Amino acid sequence: MTKTRVAMAVTAATPVRLLTLLAALAAVLLPAPAAQAASARSVQAAVQEVTGFGSNPGALRMYRYVPDGLPAGRPVVVALHGCTQTAPGYGTQSGWTELADRWGFSVVLPGQTTANNISSCFNWFQTGDITRGQGEAESIRQMVDRQLADTGADRARVYVTGLSAGGGMTSVMMAGYPDRFAAGGVVAGLPYGCAQAAGSPYLCMYVGASQTAGQWGDRVRAAAPAGYAGPWPRLTVFQGTADYTVKPVNMTDLVAQWTNVQGTDRTPDAEDTVGGYPHQVYTDASGATVAETYSITGMGHGQPVDPGTGAAQCGTAAAYVLDVDLCAAYRMGRAWGLG
């Protein structure tokens, strides 16, 4: 299925102005392909493309990383790249393929195309791509089913995460398919339905949307299967305090959205520092963690990594993959019981 779309729904823009906006957005959002390719060489050969994974209504590409000799019954992590990035490059740079070897799980790497979006952004703002059973969201769901069938993975241990536009699509998968994901990790991303709530994706990214916690939660409940009452995915958020592309207010709104869905308040039940950065934990009435946030002081727009060979280190620094001495993939993986 061929799709022709613009990168953002800017209905009042002239063609010239629209192209200017798109170029500016692509320039600030994410890295140049050359930088990605250089850092992906060590595992690029092990990342394989998979075709024929379903009807693929979103016209995405599927890549995956499966460690040699991986036994059945292991977890799956879906890792969603950001604008202008490649699926294999993001899987490697973020540290997910490295951790897959270390801990024993497989990684699904959905890939966007310029035919869908001029900047290769996942369309987290398009109604037809963020609705259960439709578009890009449904394509990603089909990739997960193919991975489960091929590897005999544990259906109860499927996780989703992504950076920037991939973070926005992570929220989509958590909201539209809460029955398929145990947890999600949003890195410099957006709450579900933010573009619709704000009136445009740009306002969502740069300003945020004026919604109560209940209104945010209602957007998730409306996206889920009819009558679905839980369990809901656990949320982890990483956000740079100096991010001027996706403003930190979006992390606040993510917490409001998912604590409301989980039926708890927005007051942290525990606070500490991890790697020197503020870390807050929100629990439900039973004491189980339902959301947690990492506020990366002074970090701009990007994925936190900590290159090296230490037990808590992972990832490769690149443009918008930022060495801040804390690897987001490692922290998510530990929280999800992967290692």
Explain this structure.
By secondary structure, this protein is α/β, with parallel strands linked by helices. Helices cover 34% and strands 19% of the residues. The protein is built from 11 helices and 12 strands. The chain has helices at 15-29, 33-44, 87-93, 96-103, 135-151, 165-176, 194-198, 201-206, 213-223, 249-262, 328-335; strands spanning 47-50, 61-65, 76-80, 106-111, 158-163, 183-187, 234-240, 270-274, 277-283, 289-296, 303-305, 321-323. The chain has a 10-stranded mixed sheet, with helices on both faces. It has a two-stranded parallel ribbon with strand order 11-12. A hairpin with a 5-residue loop joins strand 9 and strand 10. Helix 2 (33-44) crosses helix 3 and helix 9 (213-223) packs across helix 10. The protein is globular, with a radius of gyration of 18 Å. It starts with 14 loop residues before the first helix and ends with a helix.
